[in-house]
Amino acid sequence: MFWLSACQKKEEGKQAAATQTTQKLVTLDNLQRAYGAELKRSLWYDRFAKQAMKENLGDIAVLFRALSRSEKVHAEAEARLLRSKGVEPVAPAIDSIPPGKAKQYLKMSLSNENLEQNLYVADTATAQQEHFAEAAEWFRRALESDARHGRLLKKAIEQGTNFARLPYLMCPECGYIVGSDKLEECPVCKTKKDKFQKI
User: Fold this and answer.
1) Which whole-number Å values give the CA distances from 199 to 67, 80, 168, 171, in the listed order?
2) Of 21, 122, 131, 150, whose CB count within 10 A is highest?
3) For 117-150, what is each residue's pLDDT tens digit?
4) For the chain, how many structural domains are there in total?
5) What contacts 24+ positions apart, CB below 8 Å, involve 117-124?
6) Under 8 Å CB-to-CB from 30, ≥6 apart: which residues?
7) pLDDT tens digits for 9-56?
8) Which residues constitute the domain of residue 61?
9) What is the pLDDT of residue 24?
């Protein structure tokens, strides 16, 4: 009887360990997917900025450059988390961008940011279930940062040619784009104002 109970507990322990390993792979896969998506968007935003400059839309170009820098910060954070678990991040294949105008790229960018926010909600929940606290916290930060991207893009679309350039500053820890120098700290990760980078 004791022997059966001990064997059963041992088997249950193995199953729990296997389940935990499988679950952890889900968060690692989510980090890898996010890493690839952030790198792609960083490159795309850089190209969109060049297109905006060709159209003499300097304010829109600056917004796209700010978004590109922010996405790069996100990709670097996700790469660090992957490496902390012994996984080397894989560079994504960069899809070609369909030819278009800056205003079309604004709408495309907003759609992509909204999609990414939905994914980050699910990613945060998964990381919490797997007790991968660092990843859960990162996904929360990325979600809030991308929500800010969405608000900036939406404003640019709504205002059109009346869109005014903001004094963009960026938090180097989470990539949050600050549109005012009046904030004393990042609203997402509490990094102090003196660490903000000007864009």
Assistant:
1) 10, 24, 6, 11
2) 150
3) 889 999 999 999 999 999 999 999 999 999 999 9
4) 1
5) 117/143, 117/146, 117/147, 117/150, 119/30, 119/33, 119/34, 120/34, 120/146, 123/27, 123/30, 123/34
6) 119, 123, 126, 127, 135, 139
7) 555 544 444 444 444 579 999 999 999 999 999 999 999 999 999 999
8) 22-163
9) 53
